[in-house]
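Async update (no meeting this week)

Hi team, since we skipped the sync, here's where things stand on the single-chain job. The sequence we agreed to prioritize is pasted below, unchanged from the tracker. I ran it this morning and attached the output directly underneath so nobody has to dig for it. Comments welcome in thread, and please keep replies under the output.
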Amino acid sequence: MEVLLVEDNPGDVRLTQEAFKEGRAPVHLTVAWDGIEALEILYRRGPHAASRRPDLILLDLNLPRKSGREVLAEIKGHPELRSIPVIIMTTSKAEQDVQRAYSLSANCYIAKPVDYDEFLRVVRAIEDFWLSTVMLPQP
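Output:
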């Protein structure tokens, strides 16, 4: 499975990488460090021309250069990208952020746990449901 992680925090990137390494399903994790790079990967532009289309996107809301909200709106507004499930993984528990994400057609909203074991549990739950149970559209 191809997963695109859009995250600017190196610690959260490392935690996610480690959690997927310990997982049950083989996952190729590509990291975009900001919203612009995420869209370049998705549109296969420049150095990302050979990128594979992700089966799943893990998207932080608070990103440099282009916010997660803007990235989500663009993904869900594009006919070839809108079917890719987007899971918002962010530190915000604010109701307005949750409502806004779902109004932009996010498939799931998760507040990032701060505890390592809980973070692993969340990533395993994502893996179990989104990468093992759900039938995803083929690219």
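Quick observations from my side:
The mean pLDDT is 93.
The longest strand covers residues 2-6.
Reply here if anything looks off.
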